[in-house]
Amino acid sequence: MPSLKKLIAGNWKMNGSLESNAALIQSILDGDLRADACEVAICVPSVYLHQIQSLTEGKGLYLGAQDVSAHEKGAYTGEVSVSMLKEFGASFVIVGHSERRQFHHESDQLVAIKAERALASGLTPIVCVGETMQERESGATEVIVKRQLAAVIHLVGHCVTEIVVAYEPVWAIGTGLTATPDQAQSVHAVLRAQLKAAAGEGGEKIRILYGGSMNASNAKSLLSQPDIDGGLIGGAALKAADFLSIIASA
Ligand code: PGA
C-alpha cells in the first residue's frame, strides 16, 4: 500500500450531553493525536457540532456528522442539509450506516444520493457497507458489499476517489464480536479491487476503514492489514483512553 495516512473516525451515535462532550473532548485533546501518522475525526450528533467545533478549532481534530439529507433544502421537516453541516465545521459525514439502513430503511440508492450530495458540497462521505450474520452464513458477503458500493460508484463516477469506505459487518457492530484481521482483510481486498476497477490506480488511494467492535486490544492487528486504512469506532470512541489507544495503534 502507498503511505496513505490512516483515518481514525469516532462515531458517537446518539450519545452525549453538553457536559460529557466537553469532558470527553478535553481528555482526547490532552492525549496524542499523532498528526504525523493519522487523521482523527469524530462524528457527533448534529446538534452538538457547534459545541464541538468551538472546543476543537485549530486543534487538529476533524469533525463529522452521522447522516445528512438527500435534499439540498426546503420542506423536509427534521432533516439537516450538507450546507448546514459545513457551516458548523463538518468535514466528513457518515452515510449508509447499517443502523440507518436497518431502522430507517435506507436503500442503496438513497445512500448513493447522500454520498453524491456530500461530495458536491465538498464534504467527504464515509460510505458504510456490510453484511448481516445471516448473509455471511449464506455465503453472500461479497455480493452484498459489492452491491452496496456499486450503487455509490455508479452515481458519483470519477469522484469516487474522494470518498471514504467503511466496511462494517453488521454482526460485529456493538456486539463485541469482531471480524478477525483475515476476515476483514479479505473483504477489504474485494472492495479494493472494485474501487480499482472503477478508478484505476486512484482506487489505491481510497481509504477503506474497518468498523465493528474495534477496540484498544484488537486495533493493532486490524490496522496492520494491507487494505485496512483506518477505523470507524463506535463504543470505544466514547472513552478517551480507548480512543487514544486506537489512535496510537494506527
Ligand atoms: P462499534 O460501532 O465500534 O460500537 O461496534 C461501530 C459503528 O457502528 O460505527
SSE diagram, text form:
Elements: E1 6-11, H1 18-30, E2 38-43, H2 49-56, E3 62-65, H3 82-87, E4 90-95, H4 98-103, H5 108-120, E5 124-129, H6 133-137, H7 141-156, E6 164-167, H8 181-199, E7 208-211, H9 219-223, E8 230-233, H10 240-249
Parallel strand pairs: 1-2, 1-8, 2-3, 3-4, 4-5, 5-6, 6-7, 7-8
Helix pairs in contact: 1-2, 1-10, 5-7, 7-8
The structure holds 2-phosphoglycolic acid.
Brief summary of the model shown:
The chain is α/β, with parallel strands linked by helices. It is 40% helix and 16% strand. An 8-stranded parallel beta barrel has the order 1-2-3-4-5-6-7-8, surrounded by 5 helices.
Can you give a write-up of this model?
The chain has 250 residues and is of the alpha/beta class. It has a single domain (6-249), classed as Aldolase class I (TIM Barrel). 40% of the residues lie in helices and 16% in strands. It has 10 helices and 8 strands. It has helices at residues 18-30, 49-56, 82-87, 98-103, 108-120, 133-137, 141-156, 181-199, 219-223, 240-249, and strands at residues 6-11, 38-43, 62-65, 90-95, 124-129, 164-167, 208-211, 230-233. It has an 8-stranded parallel beta barrel, surrounded by 5 helices. The structure holds 2-phosphoglycolic acid (PGA). 2-phosphoglycolic acid binds at residues 11, 168, 173-174, 211-214, 232-236.
